[in-house]
Amino acid sequence: MDTKQMYSNSTEILQAIRERKPIVHQITNYVTVKDCANVVLAMGGSPIMADAEQELEDIVRLSNALVINIGTLNDRTRSSMFLAISIAQDRGIPIILDPVGAGASSYRTNTVQSMISHVVPTVIRGNLSEIRSVAQLSSHTFGVDSAGCDGTEQIEQTKGIAWNLSRKLGCVVAVTGKFDIVTDGTFMAIIENGHPALTQITGTGCMSTAMVGTCCAVTDDYFSAAVTALLGMGIAGELASVHAGLGSFHTALFDHLSRLDGALLMQKGAFHVS
Amino acid sequence: MDTKQMYSNSTEILQAIRERKPIVHQITNYVTVKDCANVVLAMGGSPIMADAEQELEDIVRLSNALVINIGTLNDRTRSSMFLAISIAQDRGIPIILDPVGAGASSYRTNTVQSMISHVVPTVIRGNLSEIRSVAQLSSHTFGVDSAGCDGTEQIEQTKGIAWNLSRKLGCVVAVTGKFDIVTDGTFMAIIENGHPALTQITGTGCMSTAMVGTCCAVTDDYFSAAVTALLGMGIAGELASVHAGLGSFHTALFDHLSRLDGALLMQKGAFHVS
Amino acid sequence: MDTKQMYSNSTEILQAIRERKPIVHQITNYVTVKDCANVVLAMGGSPIMADAEQELEDIVRLSNALVINIGTLNDRTRSSMFLAISIAQDRGIPIILDPVGAGASSYRTNTVQSMISHVVPTVIRGNLSEIRSVAQLSSHTFGVDSAGCDGTEQIEQTKGIAWNLSRKLGCVVAVTGKFDIVTDGTFMAIIENGHPALTQITGTGCMSTAMVGTCCAVTDDYFSAAVTALLGMGIAGELASVHAGLGSFHTALFDHLSRLDGALLMQKGAFHVS
């Protein structure tokens, strides 16, 4: 895999989303849920938010990917998440897990551990402290929106953690921060796109995960799907950052997310893959 | 009823909302709830979101309309919806039903059937696949944001479905899509206003329903109320569509929704009524 | 306390938030929750939204302030709120209460009365009808977004109600409206900043409370914290109000909220304190 191949894959994935309009089912939190729906629409997909156990069999059957986000977990949605991942596994659709705040409470940490012991997700996307928690390494959490891979000195360490977790579980692991790391245990991508403003509004992590889900819904190359999604968010964040305040940044971010395509990724992408 | 009469009715309805500031109670989903509250405020009304059974008696008593939206239905909110519609019926306030995703799961389909067997809503607003489900006609659902009346070839069929459902239940039926169809079983309006971008952000359907509720809160001419609301959303969508991306579109949509009045509807409206 | 001293306090508080990035835990409603998270981030803090009883011990331990907002109360979140305030009191972190809709239903009214009999909040922030309800004075509620201190004739009455409630409970009371009143039973501030558009979008009250919580997280001068927060919201609202519609207003409001500092408050502030 080289960058040229990745751009080719990304172009195909982004095109396929606009053509096939995949249905992306999300059981997510009530903080960022609207942005998680809108980012799927912006990419050309069709979001369904449904978390009642009574309808999961029907909804998962309609869907091309399942995104699980534990941002505002409670016992009702927790049960629904376990049921949904079982059905999704049976039906063979990709399962994308965002372990929001794993490590911040034992309730979240234990829920994630229990989930990954039940079902192997297709992709896990989190910040460094969340991924450390999933990997059962000690960490220190500063809120749910902080703690990423934010310095060159951390890159090698983060690569190692992601690689080991990917090999252990057999899934794609994506760690977002100043640099984004994506690995499937064979390939490793390091993405330099992004902007600090992405950490100053809520939901960009959750939206990245929803984007990963949307990309996974049209391919079985889940590594390329995850890289495409994070490249897209990083580039949209850079393009939106010319604006002066966080309200305008949010608006501009969605403007650019709705215009993502392979050509833009090729023009603005800053990553290497090996 | 002709277009001139409708513009007169719309002008009065939009004015009455700004003067009387009706309270619009909504039991809705957690995806689009903020937009559903903001659109009521933008029109000059006062939204209340409350879904705990313990307070429904008090809240419905304060309110001038009740909007029920099953977008993220669960058993707790389902019970609350049934209680609220009973109280609203007893008190004689209009009940507006948005059967989001009816047809996508039997849980939603059955809930809607049960609701309309308990209480006749004042207005039902949905896309074509949802209205087909309410009418117990087979359909095919592509996510909750898709499937409308989107071609001239479908208009006659949609008119028939809406008309029959309206006559059967004795309520106003509004089907939104590329063309919006509104009927009360006597009059029939076809609205051509709108823009494809309205289908590319989440919540415009839910917001349309909230607007119907706001209009119904100040009149007992529910047909004119529904037409006014859908005209308003369609025109605001057209005016907002000059913007290049979906973030700016959302912002501009609310700018225009907050400036709706009879003069604008008369200037931009494209519909016929018979 | 004079205005000069207050500006000095505000400057320190706003700086301390950007330096220390306090964690602000909120149990709030699903209508305005994203804005409540974003305003904490805009000021430089770190929001955590968590409402499952199973994790409150862990989350409150991480946090520097707890914000309770009863906007869409139900029995599950009600229990969580009671548990969270007990833990927060034990740990000595400030508790900020937003009694949204108190007076609109006996469920809300009684919940608030029960809360303040269990634990003395650090700050209570509400509109006039909500504060009247907390003080067990009769009022008339017009929706949850209305009823403030909106005329000079009401200022003296509002000051009296706030003062008495503050003295009775031993906490800071903040009443927002056309004029904002803040008192700790010793000092009294009257803030003239603000703009009517703040009442035309949902969430500005909830966001004000979240801002109070963010300020309280870095100081034990809770009176200055509350004044700083309300000054900040009022000034941001004025600066945002040049825009023509409510969509642009919301965007501009967050632009200005993300740029608040002591210099801006000194330049634009209109208040007196005694």
Tell me about this structure.
Three copies of one chain form a homotrimer. Chain A has 274 residues and is α/β, with parallel strands linked by helices. Chain A has one domain: Ribokinase (UDP-N-acetylmuramoyl-L-alanine:D-glutamate ligase, 3-Layer(aba) Sandwich). The first copy, chain A, has eleven helices and nine strands. Chain A has a nine-stranded mixed beta sheet, sandwiched between helices. In chain A, helix 4 links the parallel strand 3 and strand 4. Chain A is globular and about 45 Å long. Chain A starts with a helix and ends with a strand. The model of chain A has no long low-confidence stretch (mean pLDDT 94). Chains in contact: A-B, A-C, B-C. At the A-B interface, helix 2, strand 2, helix 3 and helix 10 of A face helix 5 and helix 10 of B.
Kindly summarize this structure in a few lines.
3 copies of one chain form a homotrimer. Chain A has helices spanning 3-20, 33-43, 53-62, 75-91, 106-118, 128-134, 152-169, 204-216, 222-240, 246-257, 262-268, and strands at residues 23-27, 46-49, 65-69, 95-98, 123-127, 172-176, 180-183, 188-191, 271-273.
Task: Summarize the SSE layout with pairings.
Three copies of one chain form a homotrimer.
Chain A (H helix, E strand, L loop, with lengths): L2 H18 L2 E5 L5 H11 L2 E4 L3 H10 L2 E5 L5 H17 L3 E4 L7 H13 L4 E5 H7 L17 H18 L2 E5 L3 E4 L4 E4 L12 H13 L5 H19 L5 H12 L4 H7 L2 E3 L1
Parallel strand pairs in A: 1-2, 1-3, 3-4, 4-5, 5-6
Antiparallel strand pairs in A: 6-7, 7-8, 8-9
